[in-house]
Specification:
The complex is a heterodimer. Chain A is built from 20 helices and 23 strands. By secondary structure, chain A is of the alpha/beta class. Chain A has an 8-stranded mixed beta sheet with strand order 6-5-4-1-3-2-14-7, with helices on both faces. Chain B has one domain: 3-Layer(aba) Sandwich (Rossmann fold). Chain B is built from 10 helices and 8 strands. In chain B, α6 links the parallel β5 and β6. In chain B, 34% of the residues lie in helices and 16% in strands. By secondary structure, chain B is of the alpha/beta class. Chain B has an 8-stranded mixed beta sheet with strand order 2-1-3-4-6-5-8-7, sandwiched between helices. The chains are: A alpha/beta, B alpha/beta. The interface between A and B is large, with 61 and 53 residues. β17 of chain A pairs parallel with β2 of chain B. The complex binds thiamine diphosphate, iron/sulfur cluster (SF4) and magnesium ion.
Chain lengths: 614, 282
């Protein structure tokens, strides 16, 4: 193997901008406005934000990546960085590329002059004061500077400013537009170089949405036919419930805010009993409160979808940061054995389709489905192709045969809950011990369908029965559904990428997919080939597929964002492998570069192995 | 008022029979509720009963209705979700003093605030019956229970005063021995628009904290002159040390959750397609 170098990615346009400052300084709105403006062009946009839990103060940043092809991660190093203050500079500067652009306000930031950057000291705070009488507009001054560097046309930006600040009155909008112009003028006067002209780029030729992962959950739920949500605010999941609260009534649905997460999951169980498709969004602390009711839903065999937008833990932990710390709890957190399905989306667009899939699985197999996303997906915004609404297919309520496809932009099946036939209603057994374990659910109001759904062990009719044979039979019935799920998952296409014959494999789950993918491209360009597996279905796992992947593999790298390696425990126990574990427990997502370095390290070990083998 | 429905002889389940101790107050409540359904001529398939855990929590088993027997203390939020999506159903929620006032006590205030249109029946036997005789929130001070062998060291709750403070729109108390009183109150409560609370003293004969004889002694119907729209008067009778007053304490018509959510739909001018919603994110 030759010398390890860091090659460029193949796309022509690929750059990253970071705006860093203090919470409450408008860092987020500056980044968001810029990203939104770019999202109207044919370029792909991907944003990542991190901010402190407190309302004001503390380090906050928004990072925007712009590329001419699909973006998988927030990237590693920044091309253009704007820092609002000293702390932002100190915390961010190591992420700036050599030769990158550094924009700072000399009044608030002392920089190390020796750094190899293009430095633009611009007093944006003073410019704001001079223009609108207050320093508050400095974020829009910065937006003006960025518009000059990247050639973003002002009419578009002005419209976005109007959309954003319109509700605060005409004066605010006018002030912001002045600040925007002042920023662009200052950049021009000082002689800041314009490095590209985004205004000349083609407008997007396909229909795109620019949405966050959390919005993708809400929209996915609506598309899946969900018409009820009960929730309780919990960062970083709250915007899912907010989005649902805004839009569900428009499609005839209802949302109610409950007094706590126990009440929220109880309400969705009640609504599911009533026949609706339901969802409750939360984060780790809320998931813990929901535990008893998750088992109840398993026992009553009622479809419910729970979303856990993981934050840093344990306890209140790091509310606005990311971690993959809830996997074990999601999979195993149950007193007694209660079947459930765990899905882990990998990015914003995927979250949209996995949410639809979660509803399909819940409705078909009548059990809780937990969608495990995390803060890095939930708060990330990306351009997502508008799904084609002519490609939605309803699965009939009496259809017990159709193999439901994994939803994607080309084809979306929508599962309707199975209901009993007239014949079945003559002697209705709600919990009929069928071959698949699935037994049709009568909707309240249906004559002859009355039944008892009890959390006590029960017989096929629903009547309590604590007998030994009955408990065994009904436990098996409930788990037979999970076996069906498992079989269905095995039949799906393998979720593997890269050369299937090489000896180094890398495995991850959830939001690390993009960073691993880009790391693999980097490694390939450096002459190291790896194969990558990234199951979306954490439980049940497609075990045969994974075994196949592990076969003849010499080195398995297992990547996850936590301290103890929860997924690794799972994989080691199931497959008896000894992976090289790469963990990150800092509240921040992996960058491709970090994973690339891990791959290269393993490649060196593999090389030495080969030498000793000779 | 018709007492016997033309259509249905009984709403009780043919398959599942009660397993309460002989003499348990809950039997009386069961037949009163059955009679109420007959009086109201409900269709069995339009009744949904959601109950908690406890002896009283078994109510959902004994009717030929759509029934949900969930977890301890969560009947009320479960029923709230059900009624929110299915305003067409007649939703009844039932549980004990432990289920409703201890583990699930936090939920009542919020069901009251929502004014969700359902009837919540609490069966108070002043004890944890099902788990065999521990103190409940309404066991009297100093009374000896299995978990307070030297006497209960907490003051007991005054539930009626609490419901009044929560602004519940229909509040009544009765006893499991008063079939007429139960029938008239349950019928009225179920027909009441919004959240209604029916509090029934239903003695446990096995852990007899409040024996029938004692109950008879302390119970007294609310005086005729009590005005059910006068909350201060209702408070006065709720706080009485001398008697345990029964009857309707308070009644007020208020906008129900269903009506409020329908208003929301009007504000939002209801109809949008999924694709129209997504277009807002372009
Ligand atoms: C989470 C949980 N904690 C405790 C219990 C045990 N438990 C079952 S019933 C009950 C008390 C029931 O008392 P009450 O609600 O007054 O009903 P009663 O039996 O007196 O009618 C308790 C503590 C439980 N089932 N679940
Ligand atoms: S223990 Fe008490 S409350 Fe329970 S069934 Fe027996 S008498 Fe009724
Ligand atoms: Mg009790």
């Amino acid at each position: 193997m030759g010398k390890i170098s860091k090659p460029k990615l193949k796309s022509k346009i690929d750059f990253i901008i970071r705006v860093a400052g203090e919470g409450g300084e408008g860092v987020m709105s500056c980044g968001e406005l810029f990203a939104k403006a770019v999202a109207r062009t044919s370029y792909h946009v991907f944003t990542f934000i991190t901010y402190p839990t407190e309302m004001k103060g503390g380090y906050a940043m928004t990072q925007i990546r712009i590329r001419d092809i699909t973006i998988y991660s927030m990237g590693s190093f920044v091309d253009c960085m704007v820092v609002f203050n000293q702390e932002a500079y100190d915390k961010s500067i190591s992420s700036l590329k050599e030769g990158g652009i550094l924009i700072y306000d000399p009044e608030f930031t002392k920089i190390d002059e020796s750094g190899n950057f293009v430095k633009y000291p611009i007093p944006f705070s003073q410019i704001s004061v001079d223009t609108i009488g207050r320093a508050l507009g400095k974020n829009v001054v910065v937006l003006g500077i960025l518009s000059h560097i990247y050639g973003l046309a002002h009419p578009g930006l002005e419209k976005l400013i109007n959309d954003r600040y319109g509700s605060k009155g005409k004066k605010v909008v006018e002030g912001n537009i002045k600040a925007l112009k002042a920023g662009a003028d200052a950049a021009k006067t000082i002689g800041v170089t314009t490095i590209m002209d985004l205004s000349k780029s083609e407008p997007a030729n396909e229909e795109y949405m620019f949405i966050s992962g959390n919005q993708a959950v809400a929209l996915g739920a609506i598309a899946a036919g969900c018409r009820f949500s009960a929730g309780y605010p919990l960062t970083p999941s709250t915007s899912i419930f907010e989005t649902l609260s805004k839009f569900l009534p428009l499609v005839g649905g209802r949302t109610i805010q409950m007094e706590d997460e126990i009440a929220a999951i109880s309400a969705v169980i009640g609504a599911s009993f009533g026949g609706e498709k339901v969802i409750t969004p939360t984060s780790g602390p809320g998931l813990q409160l929901m535990a008893e009711q998750m088992s109840l839903a398993s026992m009553l065999e009622l479809p419910i979808v729970i979303v856990d937008v993981q934050r840093g833990g344990p306890s209140t932990g790091l509310p606005t940061k990311t971690e993959q710390g809830d996997m074990k709890f999601a999979v195993y957190g149950s007193a007694g054995e209660s079947p459930r399905i765990i899905l882990a989306p990998t990015g914003v667009e995927d979250t949209f389709y996995q949410t639809i899939r979660a509803f399909n699985l819940a409705e078909k197999y009548q059990m809780p489905v937990i969608l495990l996303t995390d803060q890095s997906i939930g708060y990330r915004k990306a351009t997502v192709k508008m799904p084609d609404f002519n490609k939605i297919f309803m699965v009939d309520q009496f259809d017990r045969k159709t193999k439901v496809k994994i939803p994607n932009a080309e084809h979306i099946d929508l599962v309707q809950r199975q209901i009993p036939t007239e014949d079945e209603l003559k002697n209705y057994k709600r919990y009929k011990n069928t071959k698949t374990g699935i037994s049709p659910i009568a909707r309240p109001g249906t004559p002859g369908g009355q039944y008892l759904a009890t959390g006590l062990e029960h017989d096929e009719y629903g009547k309590t029965n604590q007998g030994p044979e009955n408990h065994l039979m009904m436990s098996k019935k409930r788990f037979r559904k999970l076996e069906q799920v498992s079989l269905a998952f095995e039949r799906n296409p393998m979720e593997t990428y890269g050369d299937p014959h090489v000896q180094i494999g890398i495995m991850g789950w959830g939001s690390t997919e993009g960073a691993i993918r880009e790391a693999r491209y980097l490694a390939e360009a450096a002459g190291v080939k790896v194969r990558h597996i990234h199951p979306h279905t954490i439980s049940p796992l497609p075990e045969q597929q994974i075994s196949k992947f592990l076969h003849r593999l010499k080195h398995l790298i297992l990547v996850e964002e936590n301290l103890t390696g929860q997924f690794a425990h799972f994989i080691k126990a199931k497959f008896g492998v000894k992976p090289i574990e790469v963990h990150k427990c800092e509240g921040m997502p992996f960058t491709p570069d970090e994973i690339f370095n891990a791959i290269m390290k393993v490649a060196r070990i593999a090389d030495e192995d080969n030498i000793t083998n000779i | 008022m018709k007492i016997i429905s033309q259509t249905f002889k009984t709403y009780k389940s043919a398959k599942i029979k009660p397993v309460w101790c002989p003499g348990c107050g809950d039997y009386g409540v069961l037949s009163a509720l059955d009679k109420t359904f007959k009086t109201l001529e409900f269709k069995p398939e339009d009744i949904a009963i959601v109950s908690g855990i406890g002896c009283s929590g078994r109510f959902s088993h004994y009717f030929n209705s759509y029934s949900l027997h969930g977890t301890h203390g969560r009947a009320l939020p479960t029923a709230t979700g059900l009624k929110t999506v299915r305003p067409d159903l007649n939703v009844i929620t039932i549980g004990g003093d432990g289920d409703g006032l201890s583990i699930g006590g936090g939920h009542i205030a919020h069901a009251a605030r929502k004014n969700v249109d359902l009837t919540y029946i609490i069966l108070d036997n002043n004890v944890y019956g099902m788990t065999k005789g521990q103190s409940s929130p309404t066991t009297p001070l100093d009374y000896k229970t299995k978990t307070a062998p030297y006497g209960v060291y907490e003051e007991s709750l005054n539930p009626i005063a609490m419901f009044l403070a929560y602004n519940i729109g229909y509040i009544a108390r009765t006893t499991s021995t008063d079939s007429k009183g139960m029938l008239s109150i349950l019928t009225e409560a179920i027909q009441h628009k919004g959240f209604s609370m029916v509090y029934i003293m239903s003695p446990c004969v096995t852990y007899s904290v409040l024996p029938y004889a004692k109950l008879k002694e302390i119970v007294k119907p609310l005086p005729e002159e009590h005005d059910t729209s006068d909350k201060l008067s209702a408070f006065k009778y709720a706080y009485s040390d001398e008697h345990m007053y029964t009857g309707v304490f308070y009644k007020e018509e208020k906008t129900s959750l269903d009506e409020r959510l329908k208003e929301v739909f009007n504000i939002a001018k209801i109809s949008k397609t999924t694709s129209e919603i997504m277009a807002e994110f372009k």
